[in-house]
Design goal:
This protein has helices spanning 3-10, 15-20, 23-40, 42-47, 54-74. With 77 residues, the chain is an all-alpha fold. It has one domain. The protein is globular, with a radius of gyration of 12 Å. The protein starts with a helix and ends with a helix.
Amino acid sequence: MSKTADEKILALVNPEYIKRIPFFVRGHATSKSCEYIAQKHPELYATFEGEPSTQQVEEMSKIINELFEQRMKKHNL
């Protein structure tokens, strides 16, 4: 996993989702989300190690925000 790619991906997350995650598990939640994306979408994740295209940014934004939305519902946040 790439710290640069993780930072770029997490920048796409709706700030409201991040705020709703308790601070003591926030690091775990964000790192595991990036691991999940790296595992499920390796080609797309790899593009974020460099400069992704606008289309790739939109696709990743959709994926990461849907993931956070699902997890918010799962944990009643």
